[in-house]
Predict the 3D structure of the following.
Amino acid sequence: MVLLEFSMSPMDKGESVGKYVSRSLDIIDKSGVPYRLNPMGTVLEGEWDEVFGVVKKCYERMRKDCRRITIGIRVDYRNAPRGRLDSKIASVEKRLKRRIKT
């Protein structure tokens, strides 16, 4: 099981790229892969091929009308069951003995 955090943005569309990023989020949301959006990217949880397949679909959609794209990807593999998107946060909250902002 992997957690994959990525950020993908066109470099040729000016300062505001929300239109393009939201298209990726539509693909991610419809994929059925568990995910969390954050201000700097999106974290996907699943098997290697599954999460990279979602990233590829986002890339293929963006490249249709973007001539230059930047993509940053970080991967955390662990031989563990699904649910790490929530369990990692729960582990920190347990140690702090309080809820944190997510």
Q: What stands out?
A: The chain has three helices and four strands. Residues 31 and 53 are 10 Å apart (CA to CA).
